[in-house]
Amino acid sequence: MSIYFELFVNFGIPLLVLMVAYFVGNAIEKKHFREIRAREEKVHGFPVISFATLPPDWRVGSAELVTGSVVVSLDYFKRIIAGLRGLIGGRVKTYEPLLDRARREAVLRMTEDAKARGYDAVINVRLETSRLANARKDGRGTAGVEMLAFGTAITLT
Amino acid sequence: MKFIARKPREGINVSDVHPLTEAGTLVFGLSVIFAAIVLVLVFFVDLVLTFVSSETEVRIFSTWIPDDLISTEADDVRESETRALVERLARHWPDSPYKFRLEVSASETPNAMALPGGLIIVTTALLDRVGTENELAFVLGHEFGHFRNRDHIRQLGRGVALGILFAALRFSKGGGSFGIGIADLTMRGFSRKQESDADSFGLEIVYAEYGHVDESWRFFDRMIRDDYGNSDLVTYFSTHPSGGDRIENLKFHARQHGWPLTGPTTPLTW
Fold it and tell me: Which terminus of chain B, N or C, has less C-beta within 10 A?
């Protein structure tokens, strides 16, 4: 029995974890994208722009800093595939949807907040990321990344 | 200024590749790359070793004994008897460049090894497990086979080359262990071929000594019964061919040469 047990521990368990991570991660991602699209639909038409200066015909009534922030982490499947990709280089395709979700979610949170507070637009929108922590003691691996969207919410008179 | 609201466009920042396609491409592609690296390494090691003659090897390693060898007591009858058997068997390979040395290692794993300079190491567990002299003779003959094919020195060269590759992979992020696994599996294919070749020579030695090949595969029988694994999966992941296949191959080999499969066996003195 021992050799089968060894095989199971060495190959079976990592494979099982990988499969679970893939299916769970994929389901969560799909659900999140559906949610993002629905929410984007709701705030559609609300101006969120990156101008630092106002167009001359805009008259601002009040202004306030608004932020939207989200912290994302990788699932095991994405991490492993990205690790393989790291051996030869190239586009880390498994990370792309993850960061796309993070960007859109951060902007959405900021926009929804601005809209809820009665503002008419958000200008000078900026995006920033920061690495939160290392996943491992040796300083390698990323536990999570914060995606921060911020801008100036204004009311127009 | 007029503000025109547009919906965000999809697919700008996300590649249109299914994650499983990406995974499959990477796994397959990298497997091919690492297998190729190992093949090239093996080729070069073998090439270099053609420049190292057996005589040079014997000169360098004539008194060498591994540091981690746990010797048994000096008056161990198993050791002296096995030494005598090695000498007797060596007579059937008269043009051998080696003067064989035998050491017994105290270990609980039944095993035998061929090491540079004609050194054969057998473990106490193996000596306790074998039932007849014929059975032990085949194990020793198998090790002779490794010497004849120069597997022992090749193994050493490959070990060094792979060691460097593995060290480099460990420094690389993430996929390092995947590369190590693939390289290791590729290497095992070579090992299995070596074992089969050594088996054939071992059988030849046994036939030359006893006039039949009875009891030669008894040791594999025992290994199977002790559950050292015999499934296809285990075979694939192991360096040695599985016991059952080996026995079949040995029987086939013996029949081909017309060597009797049965005959009187010699008991052990211990």
Answer: N
